[in-house]
Specification:
about 120 residues, alpha+beta, 2 domains, two-stranded antiparallel sheet, 8 strands
């Protein structure tokens, strides 16, 4: 996914025009996104459940609206470059809580279930 968004960045920003995204990269990115969505659905509610970073989630949805499996894809007008995460996780275990002080300082801690009642589940952080 990161490799193909990096390749897409070579064609961005599109400003008021559309831009062509190569067929092979379109197929690879589409396959990656479909795999992520499938895993998200299957693992939801399990101990392996994960969330997608709030920056990448709308980018993935936007990408699905124009990616094509054949002939390349037409990147829509006014699409900005995608910020590539190299050190920040794109997928975060659902049982983790963000303990960051600022947007650039993301830290995650594991939540541990310690009890459950009629109205709530209690976690230790």
């Amino acid at each position: 996914m990161v490799k193909n968004y990096s390749r897409m960045n070579e064609r961005l920003p599109t400003n008021e025009y559309v831009s062509h995204f190569w067929a092979e990269n379109s197929r690879e990115l589409l396959l990656a996104i479909e795999t992520i969505q499938g895993l998200y659905r299957v693992l939801n509610g399990s101990e392996y459940a994960f969330d997608i970073d709030s920056y990448y989630s709308p980018i993935i949805e936007q990408s699905l609206s124009f990616l094509s499996k054949s002939g390349g894809s037409e990147i829509p007008a006014y699409m900005d470059k995608v910020e590539i995460y190299y050190a920040i996780p794109i997928f975060v275990h659902s049982n983790l809580i963000n303990t960051s002080i600022s947007q650039n300082d993301k830290r995650y801690s594991v939540l541990k279930a310690i009890g459950e009642g009629s109205y709530a589940k209690v976690y230790k952080w």
